[in-house]
Amino acid sequence: MGADERVTERSQPARAYDRAVPQDRQVTIITVAERAGVSKTTASDALRGSGRVSEETRRLVVGVAEELGYVPNDSARHLRRARTGAIGLHLPEVLPRSDYYMSFVFGAVQAAADHGYDVTLLTSGTGVAPSRSPRVDGLVLGDPLADDPVVDKLMGSALPTVTCERYSGPGEPDGVVWSDHGAALQTLLGHLSDAGARRPALIVPGDESDWAASVHRAYREWCGQRGVALITRSVPFDANADATSAAARSLLTDEPQLDALVAAPTSAAATLLPVIREAGRRVGEDLLLASCVDAPALRFADPAITAIDVRPREAGAACAELLFELLTGSAVPGVERIHPIELNVRESTQRRRAA
Amino acid sequence: MGADERVTERSQPARAYDRAVPQDRQVTIITVAERAGVSKTTASDALRGSGRVSEETRRLVVGVAEELGYVPNDSARHLRRARTGAIGLHLPEVLPRSDYYMSFVFGAVQAAADHGYDVTLLTSGTGVAPSRSPRVDGLVLGDPLADDPVVDKLMGSALPTVTCERYSGPGEPDGVVWSDHGAALQTLLGHLSDAGARRPALIVPGDESDWAASVHRAYREWCGQRGVALITRSVPFDANADATSAAARSLLTDEPQLDALVAAPTSAAATLLPVIREAGRRVGEDLLLASCVDAPALRFADPAITAIDVRPREAGAACAELLFELLTGSAVPGVERIHPIELNVRESTQRRRAA
DNA sequence: ATGAAAGCGCTAACAA
DNA sequence: TTGTTAGCGCTTTCAT
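^ inputs. structure came back:
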């Protein structure tokens, strides 16, 4: 780093932060109590509004605390209450799905904040000390993949756990928030069929995620019931645009009678447009196109692409909420909750006359 | 939630988690000490490898701890050491940049894990209790926007703070990790010029982020020095594909002599391809196209789009690293560190003959 | 309606 | 090389 490092001059003398630097003296609950002329206990009760102290005293203490800039020490509080005040959030580190996960994260953070909780991010990366169990009161696992060893370990911990989508590996979460992706896909297939599609194909990741497995299963069912040929291509869960394009190309080449294409992965459908054009097909005319996971890129593509809105932010919030209910006992372990999703129909599946 | 809720039967009786449930008795350091026949202190020293105890005793204690499944209570440790063991990470909640931020986050989490720290996510969302200062030992702010009130508040806290990119609002961070986006853009402009471009245009967000401001400034400088006309369109920092497309369309209409287009925002360039095609221009032939922030979608676009690789994962890790150095005193407040970035030249800027 | 005292689990200062 | 003691700041009995 040598050559790339510089230090700007500052008004204050540089000082290290290796210890907490009590300006005068850390303002604790004792400071507040003394200053207000009450006991620790009373101060504590007043500040937390336990309803044990007189309104008058309460106001006095609160005033003093404010004046002193008192902020409760969470470590002490956590030690006393035997909890950490944080929930852990694990996500597969899959960049092509980052739109989804980003929203999911912020939804969870929001919900956690509403309950006074922090969200600690957990990764499956190499940095995870394998023996150290996370210092959190509970876990949310987004899209737990069956073959992720870190997920396995987390599921094996004694912590209350909520997964978003079902988990097919060993162990059962205490709560599950899931969306009926299968039903949504069948709605979509019905819509395509109504628009005249007879040979719909599906590009879908393998079955390590419950989401993909559900989508895949629903497709097979739907086609089976109608005697429609199964036309699928499988891609990795973390398939980037390249892999998905390759799948689409092979589909377009091998199945000339294809008249509808559903690409499950988020970002995929938008990047398929050039591939489709190259193949001499016209989206919305002789080929319908849709995605199982909506994204801004789909809404603004040309033509705009029909997709299932899985409402990731709300899903993240719902997972956190359920976890808190589990933590407080207002929900019982084993609960499953359905997170509603909906189909956004756009140009790409509304058959127009060729211009 | 009623109708959407169900409870699966489980082998164990359902039990709430509202209190920590000590199976027998929580295994503390005292348990370990007693079982090993040593004092608390010795057990503590042995487990942390303070080098105070004999090798023999150390092994004994460690063995016992392992056998008992002892895991240190971090709340107690934090209380004692007057620190929280977590760093806060704040990011603007900007979906169109989620690829970048997602990588950034995981880089930071990785680096933090290497130091035994957790990462707590902070948002500018509504859920943030305005009075509560975050329970962390330090802060990393990715792309602090000048007009974000939460960023202001965080910068105003007494916590050691590292920003990724400079902060132009009130207050100075203790550390800055920044990349020379200006220089990179000028390299890119030089490259476009070499490829024959005479009228390069720039689509760039406003100056609330230091990144965009730098890019914008470098463009003006470069053009100024060469007597090249300034052709720019401004978009919001969180511009989605729609806004960027509109800017590009206006550019292509108003400036028919345009022969190169640099779109600063991440995802933008790829979604510009249809717009450009519509306008009757051919990328890599009569119009060069590039982006200031690389992304998978650019690498796999057709044609592949030249972009500046800003290495977000490494940037996140570098910020966390710097923060830890600040925390331990091995770096002094006021330090700036440059995070190297590089240009990835691809088809979109290599002028080909028209086919 | 309020206080006094105990103690969460750990580490650091002081002894031996 | 090891043990004893004193808290970190808070919440919670148990008294009053």
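Residues 26, 28-30, 40-41, 44-45, 48, 72-73, 75-81 of chain A lie near DNA strand D (CB under 10 Å from a C1'). Residues 294 and 345 of chain A are 11 Å apart (CA to CA).
thumbs up if we can close this ticket
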